[in-house]
Amino acid sequence: MIVISKPYIGEAEKKAVLEVLESGMLVQGPRTAELEEKFAAVCGTQYAIATSSGTTALHVALLAHGIEPGDEIITTPFTFMASVNAILYTGARPVFVDIEEDTFNINPDLIEAAITPKTKAILPVHLYGYPCNMDSIMRIANQYGLIVIEDACQAVGASYKGKITGSFGTGCFSLYATKNIMAGEGGMITTNDEAIARRSRMIRNHGMQRRYLHEMLGYNFRISDLHSAIGVVQIGRLAEFTAKRKANATYLNEHITSVITPKVKKDFDHVWHQYTIRVDGGNNRDDVVKSLNDAGIGTGIFYPYPAYKQAHLVDAGYGDLSLPVTERIVKEVISLPVHPQLSQSDLETIVTEVNKL
User: Fold this and answer.
1) Which residues are catalytic?
2) In the structure, what pLDDT confidence band is assigned to residue 280 with cuts at 50, 70 and 90?
């Protein structure tokens, strides 16, 4: 089976973990500080704050910005549920805006109409590693005095007009095992705002700056140095991994002819966390997935339901919402392997089997 994703774990990652174990400093120690420094450098921000997951990074970032019950946060319905759940954790209400058909990201032309007096922030998601149109989003945010919290969990190293994701507003990243660089599990917040950085560090650690002096309500969202040690090694592989993903995606785009393939617009630098085709018209997606799986090609459906169709959102009153582009796209998308460990033979097999559809 050509798997849909495959974490790279080399000797350097193993050695880094053993060094932490031997040091006895296991949680939020020197390897975490090193990871934060290197991550900030990648994103071009002053600060990076490591957390236990991408989900907790989003949760902490929202809290650090003062989001509270009754606030409204504009976001996309086509995303992993963590983007939406983090909003709900704060007691705020997600407001869903439909997506662009060609990028799968939030449609900035529809954002302004969704703004109300309760709107406090826009939370765009750089889905699959494709950056959102941040010029339009930042213009709207600045005009209305809104916070921007970027869900860049799938988009480490992506950029829009040369500016790295996570550096437009407050960025949130995931270091989960299948991400472009990983730590097994973990998250990161990036910001140029010292006050947001300080509050984020406190919230992730029970509201403390000084040991046992709790200045605010906080959580145990710390990352271990075991995870951070892996992340430090992986971040050194980011350029290599990204180049390989781009080369793999280019090959697939040049050779797949039977389905709708992803295209990248000028000024958008895609890092290909997922390579996502669309099956429409006369093809049944379930049949396509079965055919590819039977041929030894792993696939993923990211994501089969709009966020507002999930049970807890329906219970919260979103049951009658309908966003036509999202509801069409969720029935068409299939992600194919694009990870750096694919061989040329793997790529040729993927092309051959997809073109049989």
Assistant:
1) 179
2) confident
